[in-house]
UniProtKB/TrEMBL annotation:
<keyword id="KW-0479">Metal-binding</keyword>
<dbReference type="InterPro" id="IPR051188">
    <property type="entry name" value="PHD-type_Zinc_Finger"/>
</dbReference>
<protein>
    <submittedName>
        <fullName>PHF7 protein</fullName>
    </submittedName>
</protein>
<dbReference type="InterPro" id="IPR001841">
    <property type="entry name" value="Znf_RING"/>
</dbReference>
<dbReference type="Pfam" id="PF13771">
    <property type="entry name" value="zf-HC5HC2H"/>
</dbReference>
<dbReference type="InterPro" id="IPR011011">
    <property type="entry name" value="Znf_FYVE_PHD"/>
</dbReference>
<feature type="domain" description="RING-type">
    <location>
        <begin position="80"/>
        <end position="127"/>
    </location>
</feature>
<dbReference type="InterPro" id="IPR013083">
    <property type="entry name" value="Znf_RING/FYVE/PHD"/>
</dbReference>
<dbReference type="GO" id="GO:0005634">
    <property type="term" value="C:nucleus"/>
</dbReference>
<keyword id="KW-0862">Zinc</keyword>
<keyword id="KW-0863">Zinc-finger</keyword>
<dbReference type="InterPro" id="IPR059102">
    <property type="entry name" value="PHD_PHF7/G2E3-like"/>
</dbReference>
<dbReference type="InterPro" id="IPR034732">
    <property type="entry name" value="EPHD"/>
</dbReference>
<dbReference type="GO" id="GO:0008270">
    <property type="term" value="F:zinc ion binding"/>
</dbReference>
<dbReference type="Pfam" id="PF26054">
    <property type="entry name" value="PHD_G2E3"/>
</dbReference>
<feature type="domain" description="PHD-type">
    <location>
        <begin position="1"/>
        <end position="65"/>
    </location>
</feature>
Length: 219
């Protein structure tokens, strides 16, 4: 049986609505004392909220989340240091930077994917700083992994070009079936951002409206 205080928390969460999707059951409240905003964890990216995956596991809404204080970029190359696509000129929720070299810029979803794949080898992709960079990313809501880098595991399992190629949603809606995959659109396959061992079509129910990443039930 659940303890009385746990049941009380569940009952209270059932009454609160998520300020992002407006549906009830929002169990996460902004840590700012005066703020009453609540949200679902899967809605956090769309609402530009931050959850810190260390210590007290604090969560913040878009208004009260921690923000990076970086100097203007020395160069005018507004590209992501990871995917090489364009990034915003200014630091924002979606555009982040390295506090050590002050030069590296990257998309939030790119650095989150790098963090999960790098594991204990996670560091700035430009200056290779680890300690300062890692603490900054933790503070900004990037979730780290304590396992070995995924590329080391991939070498043990098999060739790195063997990519998961089917939808693992509980109910797959694709007319072509679970193994039908397209390069873009509703039947594009998104792999689990943590293990890359399972995937799901963008249009299938379990993915929802997330613009960033998806994780399988195992992870």
């Amino acid at each position: 049986f659940l303890a009385e205080d746990t049941r009380h928390i569940i009952r209270e969460a059932a009454k609160k609505s998520c300020f992002v999707c407006c549906k009830v059951g929002a169990s996460i409240t902004c840590c700012q004392t005066s703020c009453q905003r609540t949200f679902h964890l899967p809605c956090a990216p769309d609402g530009e909220c931050v959850t810190q995956y260390f210590g007290a596991y604090r969560s913040f809404c878009w208004e009260h989340r921690p923000k990076q204080a970086l100097q203007p970029r020395p160069c005018q190359d507004n590209t992501c240091s990871i995917c090489l696509d364009t990034v915003d000129d200014k630091i924002s929720y979606t555009t982040m930077g390295c506090p050590a070299c002050q030069d590296a810029r990257f998309h939030r979803h790119c650095i989150q994917r790098l963090a999960l794949h790098s594991g204990i080898a996670f560091r700035c992709p430009c200056c290779l700083n680890q300690e300062l960079f890692m603490m900054e990313m933790l503070t900004m809501g990037i979730r780290l992994s304590k396992r070995a880098p995924s590329w080391e595991s991939d070498q043990e399992v098999g060739p790195s070009d063997q990519r998961h190629g089917r939808c693992d949603a509980a109910t797959c809606l694709c007319p072509g079936g679970r193994e039908h995959v397209e390069a873009d659109g509703p039947w594009q396959l998104w792999l689990c951002s943590s293990c890359a061992a399972k995937g799901i079509h963008r249009h299938c129910p379990s993915l929802g409206n997330s613009k960033y990443t998806w994780e399988c039930n195992t992870c």
